[in-house]
Amino acid sequence: MQLVFPSWKKQNKPQIQALKLDKKDGEIPEYLVETTEGKEPSAYLFEMSTEQLIRLDSNRAVLITSASPLDQQGESVSGHLLAGLISAFWFKQVDGRWYADGQQTQLDWIGAFGSIGKSKVVKLSSNQFALGVESGDCFQGACFTDLMLYELGGEKVKSLLKHSIRIAADTMGVRGDCEQILKQPVNKVIRYRHVESAQSSINCVDVKSDWAIKANGKNPGDLLIRFSGFIEEQKTIEKIAAEVGEEESTIVVDSILSPIKQQQLFRYREGKYLLVSGKNPTPEF
């Protein structure tokens, strides 16, 4: 980090740094606040964190960082719809010493509240690496996690997916009875009475997954995502109008809990992973 940011301190925590973003490398979000006006490329303040450092070969390495945007006073400007920034910085080794050798500051904007989520490095093939980033958010009790994949090249990082893949979703915070619902016998009709509301009509969901790339050869291996969990389906049987003096109606529903155990297979073709088989069971929010 000191090769890229001379003021970086040897501390294992995020630090505020000015980062230059060039418009030719991607669209700059409108909510960013320039620290230097009238110059190209413009500089912006971020709270920077190191994510991954990957030795690509004997003489080349790439550093992946994440950054949360700040205003000119060093205060966060992040929110639900404000993503975190992923950047890449390359280094080369010459005569036993490492030198900065290129950067890709706007690799991608993903996540929420200025956080990209969690990252990990996996083998893409026998001699290639990939960066997986799992990011998500919660809104009104419904939560989700999406996966993005990037190929870590010697001079450029590029996306391996046309769009993110949803790998987890749950509605545990939407209704107060979801924990109870998800413990009921599977594939059995259970009748309930709910106070009618926008929340009561939402099915209880808890779906997770694990993913892996089968990196056994010289070409990128298949991406396999395995889902597990439970999804409730409700069918309204009766609506009971509110009695005199009461404000809320009641609905009678039949609830069926279905187990989820399925997978999706993606195959690398012309620089991208494309779906070969399987369906994604996670609901859209």
Task: Please outline the helices and strands.
Layout: E1 15-21, E2 42-57, E3 60-69, E4 84-94, E5 97-110, E6 118-125, E7 128-139, E8 142-152, E9 157-159, E10 165-170, H1 178-181, E11 190-195, E12 205-213, E13 223-240, E14 250-269, E15 272-277
Low-confidence parts, pLDDT < 50 over ≥5 residues? none
Structural class: mainly beta
Strand content: over 45%
Task: Tell me the number of strands.
Answer: 15
What is the molecular shape? globular
Summarize model confidence as the mean pLDDT.
91
What is the helix fraction of residues, given as a range?
A: under 10%
Main sheet: strands, sense, barrel: 10 strands, antiparallel
One letter per element, helices H and strands E, the order comes to EEEEEEEEEEHEEEEE
What's the multimeric state? single chain
What is the C-alpha radius of gyration, as a whole number of Å?
Answer: 24 Å
How many helical elements? 1
Terminal Cα separation, in Å? 38 Å
Short key terms for the protein model shown above:
single chain; 285 residues; mainly beta; 10-stranded antiparallel sheet; 5-stranded antiparallel sheet; 1 helix; globular
